[in-house]
Design a protein that fits this description.
alpha/beta, two-stranded antiparallel ribbon, about 15% strand
């Protein structure tokens, strides 16, 4: 009988992480989000497999940038028609589409391969604190990676009784 333990389905299970982006630096936050989307925080990481987790970011309106980037940063896209270069400044983008700023930063930190779009689909960004239907999916805290109180109460009936007594 073999004693070898392979990569189980539990090792590849996707977990939902919640990130509060208020007063966080854009580049550092985007780097951490990209690592979680790729799955580099898991012991079963393989660069050719998509084993990353889901990330829900709230309060994208309150993100910070360092230096003078809020004055100098320009987002460019092209319509593919002659003369179709569209430029949007950081301040305008922050007012109209704050979620697009984080998505663009994370996209730049992911590897440029076939898995990039699939990984970006697992990134959910919201300008305010309301995350809608995704609130029920959150399992882990961003800061320390521990389970949330709601999930612990759901698992252990003894803790559920203690919570009701409080």
């Amino acid at each position: 009988m073999s004693q070898a333990v392979g990569n189980t389905a539990l090792a590849y299970a996707r977990v939902w992480h919640h990130v509060n982006a208020s007063d966080r630096v854009l580049g550092k936050l985007a780097e951490r989000i990209a690592l979680v989307l790729m799955g580099k925080h898991k012991p079963v990481y393989d660069k050719s497999l998509d084993c990353g987790d889901y990330v829900v970011v709230t309060n994208a309106k309150h993100i910070n940038v360092t230096g003078r980037k809020d004055e100098q940063l320009v987002y460019r896209k092209h319509t593919m028609f002659p003369g179709g270069l569209k430029e949007t400044e950081y301040k305008d983008m922050m007012e109209n589409k704050p979620y697009e700023i984080i998505r663009h930063a994370v996209s730049g930190m992911l590897p440029k391969n076939k898995l990039r779009e699939r990984r970006l689909e697992r990134l959910k960004v919201f300008g305010g604190s309301n995350m809608g239907i995704y609130r029920g999916n959150i399992l882990k805290r961003w800061e320390d990676g521990t389970l949330t109180e709601d999930y612990i109460l759901k698992l252990d009936p003894k803790n559920r009784m203690k919570a009701k007594a409080k």
